[in-house]
Amino acid sequence: MLEVQNLHTYYGDSHILHGVTLSVQKGSVSILLGRNGMGKTTTLHSIMGITPSKQGKILINGKEIQGEPNYKVSKSGIGIVPQGRRIFGNLTVKENLLTTHRPYKDGWNLNDIYDMFPRLKERESSMGGNLSGGEQQMLSIGRALMTNPKLLLLDEPSEGLSPLMVREVIKIIIHLKNEGLPMLIVEQNLAMATSLADHVYVLNKGNIVFDGPSEEFDTATRNKFLSLSS
Ligand SMILES: Nc1ncnc2c1ncn2[C@@H]1O[C@H](COP(=O)(O)OP(=O)(O)OP(=O)(O)O)[C@@H](O)[C@H]1O
């Protein structure tokens, strides 16, 4: 589904990603773990063409997208739920959802999003900026789904949420997975990550230092490379 090979990304002269290679298989969830500042967001932004990589290959369903601008990557079927939600605070819930809608036969539409998140229906006329953190996260996920992605990237979806809301987000991700949507998730909450992952990657200073099925993600690796909440 998604193949990322030997990605090198820089901010100016700072070499951040040193040959990142990872993949997401059809219908599966891959998790990217790592301490703060290790390059997780940069990896997602490189895939999306937001922070283009200088070297490497990115393929979605066999189609090369490395070097494509962000709008083309998005059009090729990759959606993102960004870190910090990034919803439009001065647009209503409904407007937030409609701005990204890319109609697709049998794809997501407004009513599907409201069926999945009844709370967003209740708040459809409220300004995005007036929503709670949990509601904003629902809106951010809903907005990404409105692009009808074939693959979804989520950057720390549990960040800043209450334990109750984290459980809600886990439920939603499991639901989407069961519907066959492949996902690449950056996460700091280890309990959440391990409850969702089919495959785990650990990033350390821009290098993948663990790559394996979640059953093989061992305590030694965890202790060496992560300082995560459990
Ligand atoms: N716009 C930028 N300009 C320069 N350096 C940056 C920029 N964004 C990130 N960096 C640096 O790149 C490195 C990787 O950052 P990145 O945000 O990808 O890490 P991360 O693993 O996602 O961490 P976090 O969990 O804190 O978001 C860090 O050293 C960071 O300071």
Automatic annotation (TrEMBL):
CDD domains in UniProt: ABC_TM1139_LivF_branched (cd03224)
One Pfam family of this chain: ABC_tran
GO molecular function: ATP binding; ATP hydrolysis activity; branched-chain amino acid transmembrane transporter activity
Domain of life: Bacteria
InterPro entries, sorted: AAA+_ATPase, ABC_transporter-like_ATP-bd, ABC_transporter-like_CS, BCAA_Transport_ATP-bd_LivF, P-loop_NTPase
Residue span, ABC transporter domain: 2-230
Keyword flag Cytoplasm: no
Name of this protein: ABC transporter ATP-binding protein
Organism: Terrihalobacillus insolitus
Organismal lineage: Bacteria, Bacillati, Bacillota, Bacilli, Bacillales
